[in-house]
Amino acid sequence: MAAKRRKRMRTILRNAKIWLGGDQFASAVLFDSSQILAVGTDAQVEAQRQNGDQIIDVQGRLVLPGLCDTHLHCYNKGCTLQNIDLQDVSSIEEIVSRSREYIQAHPDSSVIHGRGWNHDYFAEGRILNRADLDRISTRVPVVLTRACGHIACVNTCALQRLGFTGAIVQPEDGQIDVDEQGCPTGIFRENAMLLLKPLDPPLTVTQIKERLALALAAAARAGLTTVHSNDVTSENLDLMLEAYRQLRAEDRMPVRVVLQCTLTDPESLMRYLEIKEQTPSDEVLVFGPLKLLTDGSLGARTAWMRQPYADDPSTRGIATMTRAQLDELVSLAHAHGLQCVCHAIGDAAIEMVLDTFENVNRTSPDNPLRHGIVHCQITDSALIDRFASTHTAALVQPIFLHYDQHIVEQRVGTELAQTSYAFRSLAERGVAVSFGTDCPVEDLNPFANLYCAVTRKDLHHPEASGYRPEEAFSLEAALRCMTETAAWQSFEEGRKGVIQIGALPDFTICDQDVFALAPQKLKDVRSWMTICQGKVRWQAE
Ligand SMILES: [Zn+2]
Predict the structure, then answer these.
(1) pLDDT tens by residue, 169-185
(2) What are the distances in angstroms from CA 68 to CA 53, 137, 205, 262, 534?
(3) Is 16 helix (H, G, I), strand (E, B) or coil?
(4) What angle do the packed helices 266-278 and 237-249 form, to 10 degrees?
(5) Separation of 236 CA from ligand 1 center, angstroms?
(6) Tell me, which fold does domain 204-531 have in CATH?
(7) Which residues 6+ apart lie within 8 Å of 246 measured at CB?
(8) Is 250 exposed, middle or buried (CB count within 10 Å of its CB: 0-12, 13-18, 19+)?
(9) Which of 30, 167, 411, 461 has the smallest set of CB atoms within 10 Å of its CB?
């Protein structure tokens, strides 16, 4: 007996304010699990209704194309959801007490991880050290990572476990802080943090899946329907891909994922290219670009600058790759038709990446693979022009303004600060600008990101005038950075990030109408319902 062909579930959203771009709106949309089938007035869409269609009355709410975040880290977000959350701590005392509570609640942990601290907010006015962490535990290794992910502090137990007992040999591209006696203070910077890896027991696919699933659920709850997630590395390539493949096969991906893969040697890059080649294309789990890191963070003064830091002339930050290493990997990816996106924050790092892109694009100056720079923070006007002349995409984080606007002048001086975080200038020169949050560096809430893009203010002071308000996006332009342009970045324009017949059935339904709100209220908007692949993935109570 032939199996009865299962009919695709169809859904109609009605009584809605559906944004079609510009000042165009519709009130109803019909879709199945693979595409949008009709858009129009309630009556027009009602006319196409069939028996069995699910009807959702959204009570006049605003429906946007599903929002996309073009750079975050799902796996790390999942870890922070499982580990000690140190965001918003305002003192070392608070870190100690919160960590002790965590140990009491998780007595069997063999290593304690926490993330999210920022010593600029500490009442004690200094950075963490191992003596602070020894007050948390002397029996179990404790690793507490700064919000930026570029600095970690460990306790003495961890140092002993790793064999850091005698003289310290400094690693390349990183730093282990030492005191006057030459003993480690507990602080590890940039690639020195890789030396902490042996503290952790080997990961299993099941553990990775748990963490990814937590993060993907958080993304759906926040109103995202696609995330470009940077989780795969040379070290975890097979495990991480397997975890994602299993989640996909088990239909446990409430949002679409474009993988950004940090492959730092030619062998693992070639292996990824081979796997990508053999994998049938899929619109839920996309094998995306090579993602390389070329410097650190501004907060930690590890962003690589052309001039010394204004508030610490002893350093220009850290280049985490040489130009030769960058050229080799980008050329290899480019030769195989693979897009490259590179983390670059300081002006020296940005310049190096632009040089590399210009070099690989010698015979294709319009940058057909859409290579891009992630972060793009410290720029002078010549660098901004070079983004445009090299057609380099900019994957920026407006939410970084929340914190960075309070440190950028101290770090780089008034003059350079005046041309930095120039996201609107980039867009106006024709650069493809898309938005991400770099979560867990910042929260993945797309409406907080939207608020920062449109107001240039920090989240706590909507009454302030904001940082370089002339760089603020219009609401509509900002929404395009989270929809259409984000889709362009993964070669999905026309299919994703728009509401039209034939496009993917992904929608973010807002609990408040962003077009009717004062800009400073945008940060308070939440997803009322998130629909991805035509299914409701999150719904507010
Ligand atoms: Zn990142």
Answers:
(1) 899 889 999 999 999 99
(2) 27, 40, 26, 20, 16
(3) coil
(4) 20
(5) 17
(6) TIM Barrel (3.20.20)
(7) 205, 209
(8) exposed
(9) 167
pLDDT tier at 88, thresholds 50, 70, 90? confident
Measured in Å, residue 332 CA sits from the centre of ligand 1 at: 22
Rounded distance from Cα 73 to ligand 1 centre (Å): 6
CATH 3.20.20.140 residue ranges of the chain are 204-531
Match 């940077």 to its residue by tokens: 230
CA of 208 from ligand 1 middle (Å) equals 18
Distance 231 CA to ligand 1 centre (A): 9
Poorest-pLDDT segment among 98-107, 219-228, 326-335, 371-380? 98-107
DSSP string, 240-278: HHHHHHHHHHTT--SSEEEEEEE--SHHHHHHHHHHHHH
Tell me which residue of 178, 179, 117 sits closest to 142, measured CA to CA.
117
Residues within 5 Å of ion ligand 1, judged at the Cβ atom: 438
DSSP class of residue 321? S
**Separation CA 447–CA 495 (nearest Å):** 23
CATH 3.10.310.70, the chain: domain bounds: 111-199
C-alpha–C-alpha distance, residues 30 and 39, integer Å: 6
For tokens 């339904």, the residue is 509
Q: How many CB atoms lie within 10 A of CB 488?
A: 18
Domain 111-199 in CATH 3.10.310.70? The answer is yes
- Contact 338/290 with Cβ under 8 angstroms? yes
The string of pLDDT tens digits covering residues 24-57 is 999 999 999 999 999 999 999 999 999 999 999 9
Residues 405-460: pLDDT tens digits? 999 999 999 999 999 999 999 999 999 999 999 999 999 999 999 999 999 999 99
* ipTM, 2 dp: 0.97
Site of tokens 């493949």: 245
Tens-digit pLDDT profile for residues 123-149: 999 999 999 999 999 999 999 999 888
Q: Taking 70 as the threshold, does the pLDDT of residue 3 lie above it?
A: no
Ligand 1 centre to CA of 72 (Å) is 6
